[in-house]
């Protein structure tokens, strides 16, 4: 199939959309072209990662979105052009999209097993406190087998830099610690954290309340020291000594007595990161431990491309002005997770005929899952509507990529026109997705769950470029924030 086979109507539609972009000054790379008209026209070059770092300058748009918060750290894509030099040549290797989706499926299935079947409860809040805030950038990286995001913080006294994955779906933070031979530890960018060189380090004793509160993360005691274990959805795990030390977020923002896992044995696909920063809802998470300083509020903006920069903010103004908000729910089987209620989906500006009961299990907001998962009934309706809206343009179909079954070959096109996709949540909060949240690897960036009773998952592809704000009671969305 070639462009000569495209109908005259389709050619007129593409021409009209291009004229709109040129005449009205829309920014296609952020999905703005044609919003409200049912389509968005973008350059196919935007689907390809650039080798040039596009950083946010001091006082730029990201800083404005952060409302003048007190501290900012520059963070980069782990493998992208903004990132630090890798520890070894192997660290340069990115997993293929197919390998990424395989690991992503394992994670999604794990989350769905934890959450599905548990009724959504009333919104549950974390203790809110002062207005102090700290901001540090987050960037797209590759770890635990999926597209992930990392921040750089420091641990110990003197402070030692640690590049850590950010995960809203887990609670215990950890880093690899000496002694840790390879195996059972993996190669990482920075030197292993050496607790013997930190004057503020201490192992948590077995008799401490922090040890008993580990619950399912407890790994017994050895020599009077509290052990921990964390297993992840893709089969990766970490074990070691539960510990306390000073966590430095920025040069002027530090948390003394921060509880974390000092890992002495790790297994799985951690891909060079130094550790993990848990942002879940239980007491062990960074959000909970920092609530006295930052009020239990946090937000993040996942960058839209590997060569751009986003941010993670602890604290900030209490106002939700500028955010479209939806209530935060809880599931008894998955208290770690941030759950919202998806109510409808629109394609090309038209709401799909999906009964609201299909979404009754809720949707987990997860930074670690790549593509959004929907119950099969909802996914089938989305796929059918998307394919029908794409048909007039005559784009050649491409083979499926793993779980992604609606794929196109855009290689001979300079620009493409896509139907818009919008996700609406309880209370009316709506995410109008840009092209980067609709297509990944030439494919529709959504996949079905194992059944209509399974929870949906809002993946990180759809979250990119939105600022998501969490305050214990609501989740807020603000587009075009990084």
UniProtKB/TrEMBL annotation:
InterPro entries noted in UniProt: Aspartic_peptidase_A1 (IPR001461), PEPTIDASE_A1 (IPR033121), TAXi_C (IPR032799), TAXi_N (IPR032861)
* BP terms from Gene Ontology: proteolysis
Catalytic positions?
167, 366
- PROSITE patterns on file: PEPTIDASE_A1 (PS51767)
- The signal sequence is 1-33
Instruction: Indicate the segments forming the Peptidase A1 domain, all copies.
Output: 149-482
According to the UniProt entry, its GO molecular function terms are: aspartic-type endopeptidase activity
Recorded superkingdom: Eukaryota
What's one Pfam family here? Answer: TAXi_C
Q: Which UniProt keywords apply?
A: Aspartyl protease, Disulfide bond, Hydrolase, Protease, Signal
PANTHER family in alphabetical order: ASPARTYL PROTEASES, PROTEIN ASPARTIC PROTEASE IN GUARD CELL 1-LIKE
Assigned protein family: Belongs to the peptidase A1 family.
Protein name (database record): Peptidase A1 domain-containing protein
Q: Which organism is it from?
A: Zizania palustris (Northern wild rice)
């Amino acid at each position: 199939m070639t462009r000569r086979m495209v109908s005259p109507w389709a050619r007129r539609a593409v021409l009209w959309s291009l004229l709109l972009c040129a005449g009205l000054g829309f920014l296609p790379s952020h999905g703005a072209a044609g919003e409200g008209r049912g389509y968005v026209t973008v350059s196919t070059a935007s689907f390809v990662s650039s080798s040039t770092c596009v950083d946010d300058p001091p006082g730029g748009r990201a800083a404005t979105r952060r409302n003048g918060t007190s501290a900012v750290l520059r963070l980069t894509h782990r493998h992208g052009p903004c990132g630090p030099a890798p520890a070894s040549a192997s660290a340069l290797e990115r997993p293929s999209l197919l390998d990424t989706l395989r690991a992503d499926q394992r994670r999604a299935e794990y989350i769905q097993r934890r959450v599905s079947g548990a009724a959504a409860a009333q919104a549950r809040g974390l203790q809110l406190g002062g207005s102090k805030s700290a901001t540090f950038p987050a960037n797209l990286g590759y770890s635990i087998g999926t597209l992930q995001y990392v921040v750089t913080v420091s641990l110990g006294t003197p402070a030692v830099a640690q590049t850590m994955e950010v995960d809203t779906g887990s609670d215990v933070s950890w880093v690899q610690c000496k002694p840790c031979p390879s195996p059972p530890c993996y190669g990482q960018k920075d030197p292993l954290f050496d607790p013997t060189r930190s004057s503020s380090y201490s192992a948590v004793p077995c008799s401490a309340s922090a040890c008993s509160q580990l619950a399912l993360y407890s790994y017994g005691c050895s020599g009077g020291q509290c052990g921990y274990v964390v297993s992840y959805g893709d089969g990766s795990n970490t074990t070691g000594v539960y510990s306390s030390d000073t966590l430095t977020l920025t040069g002027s923002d530090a948390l003394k007595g921060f509880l974390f896992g000092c890992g002495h044995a790790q297994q799985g696909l951690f891909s060079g990161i130094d550790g993990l920063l848990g942002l879940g809802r239980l007491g062990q998470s960074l959000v909970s431990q920092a609530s006295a300083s930052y009020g239990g509020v946090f937000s993040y903006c996942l960058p839209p491309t590997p060569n751009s920069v986003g941010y993670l903010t602890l604290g900030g103004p209490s106002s939700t002005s500028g955010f479209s908000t939806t209530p935060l729910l809880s599931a008894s089987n998955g208290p770690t997770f941030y759950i919202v209620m998806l109510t409808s989906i629109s394609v090309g500006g038209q709401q799909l005929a999906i009964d609201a009961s299909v979404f009754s299990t809720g949707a987990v907001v997860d930074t670690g899952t790549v593509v959004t998962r929907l119950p099969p009934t909802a996914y089938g309706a989305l796929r059918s509507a998307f394919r029908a809206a794409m048909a007039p343009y005559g784009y050649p179909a491409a083979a499926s990529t793993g779980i992604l079954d609606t794929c196109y070959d855009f290689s001979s096109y300079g620009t493409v026109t896509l139907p818009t996709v919008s996700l609406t949540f309880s209370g009316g909060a709506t995410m109008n997705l840009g092209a980067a949240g609709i297509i990944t690897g030439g494919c529709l960036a959504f996949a079905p769950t194992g059944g209509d009773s399974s929870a949906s998952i809002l993946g990180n592809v759809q979250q990119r470029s939105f600022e998501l704000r969490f305050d214990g009671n609501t989740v807020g969305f603000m587009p075009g924030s990084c």
